[in-house]
Amino acid sequence: MNDVFTGSFTQQEPIPDEGIEAALRVLRHGRLHRYNLAPGEVGETAQLELDFAAQTGARYCLAVASGGYAMATALRALGVQPGDKVLSNAFTLAPVPGAIASLGAVPVFVGVTPALRIDLDDLAAKVATSGARVLLLSHMRGHICDMDALMAICDGAGVRVVEDCAHTMGAAWNGTASGRFGALGCFSMQTYKHVNSGEGGFLISDDADLMARAILLSGSYMLYDRHKAAPPPEVFAEIKYDVPNISGRMDNLRAAVLRPQIALLPERAAAWNARYARLEQGLRGTPGLTLIDRPALESMVASSFQALLLDWPAPAIEAALARCKVRGVELKWFGAPEPAGFTSTYRHWHYAHPGSMPATDRILAGLVDMRLPLTFSLADCDQIASILRAEIGAAWQAL
Ligand SMILES: *Cc1c(COP(=O)(O)O)cnc(C)c1O
Predict the structure, then answer these.
(1) Which of 35, 196, 352, 353 has the smallest set of CB atoms within 10 Å of its CB?
(2) Which residues form ligand 1's pocket by a CB distance below 6 Å?
(3) Cβ distance 303 to 372 under 8 Å?
């Protein structure tokens, strides 16, 4: 079989008609700024925050300009200072250490296991030795670690947790929504995530003081009473002279586009997981390819797929990727010497002065990754699996 896959790994679904109509209403009335409201109007942004708070069960929700902005704001709300160490994942994407660096703080990287979760032994060791008071935990590519064990390590040492849920919107661990374990949860609504407004981010929390700080930080111009998924005014009154305004607001146009997508999330999660399952089924038993274990307690929203070419020599991985690419299936590789596009690793973030992490390097050296947009059909997933099985199998035989 020599067929070529012709689908696009970066083509998202269109915006639902309801979102397009809501966006047109905002354009027609012209009140795009979240605080520009007609008398009695709640506004799309405040309403979006109510919707997402209800969906996650969080007491408070704030919508902002991006996922990266949400993470930096969470760290500021927790009082992280320049020079402070902040624990985070060695296996994540660049905006995560970037959020830490944006405060003048210093990332301390924690390793990854063969199941692509944060290494809890390495975390416990670095909690004990680093002096960090905060963990920015990235649920990278949707792989959620044992959250009860992680929270026990962090709570036991007084380390506050911020969850980066850029890949776990709508996911859960043991029945609790991702983002509801830490002091704050952060999400991204950038085009390549689970809902799409081009750019955008959420912060959720049950902590009134932290959320009031986050709202003031986000650029509320003392108009915090126009937030509806927010703590009461007296919480703001105590801190409003101490918190700077670092503008990064959501606007009503993007909120209008997002609201119907938030409602569709459970349905979309099922569609993503069906595609993931088809791909996994088609790849089972491929020589040289290690699939990733998904724990029973994890409810995923699998918008991407990872596997390991564990301990393959780098030239053989390059050959396998080249064979797949010729047939229309472009895999990302976390073992590449140079950062490319969205794919980089802790070794590339020189500003953080990363130490050497051999166990993590072994995993990243073999890690391949692809997006799974909802525009792919189940038949597309079967075709991709058969191409990968043939080409990776052939590269393995040639070893
Ligand atoms: C996309 C992403 C973010 C946030 O990104 P923005 O582009 O700033 O919205 C955070 N963490 C991870 C792992 C991501 O992939």
Answers:
(1) 353
(2) 66-68, 92-93, 95-96, 138, 140, 164, 166-167, 188, 190, 201
(3) yes
